[in-house]
Amino acid sequence: MNDKSTVKPPMWFWIVGVIALLWNLIGVSAYLSEVFMSEEVFVSMPEAQQALYESRPSWATAAFAIAIWSGLLGSIALLLKKKWAKVVFILSLVGILLQQLYHFFLSNTFDVMRTTAMILPILIVIFGLLLVIFADFAAKRNWLS
């Protein structure tokens, strides 16, 4: 074997990888339910929430898509023990930060959805950052090839 060979990761690596995958699958579900929201569901929302959805710029929706799909791909890459998982998680984090930039500073999201709606976006940013750190940690320990 050469110096670049991978080391068998510990069991908790796999647990973190599965949690990352499940977390990102929940995000995919949220994204798809929003993108494919039926007219019936849309009109059942309060008018302020409808206006919020209608006024969202396409770049914010694109950031959401980048965050979600690259997060899912990063989780799969992590479970496949691929070093490029870190790069994909960084891309996901950029998408997350752009999306949250819009929600926190460029829209009235929290006026409409209440300040308690800030909890999940903050957790999403933290989780995205932790996935980048974890992929870097795993790569430095040669758990990824």
Automatic annotation (TrEMBL):
The chain crosses the membrane at residues 12-32, 59-80, 87-106, 118-139. Keywords: Membrane, Transmembrane, Transmembrane helix. It comes from the Bacteria. This is Sugar transporter. It comes from Arenibacter arenosicollis.
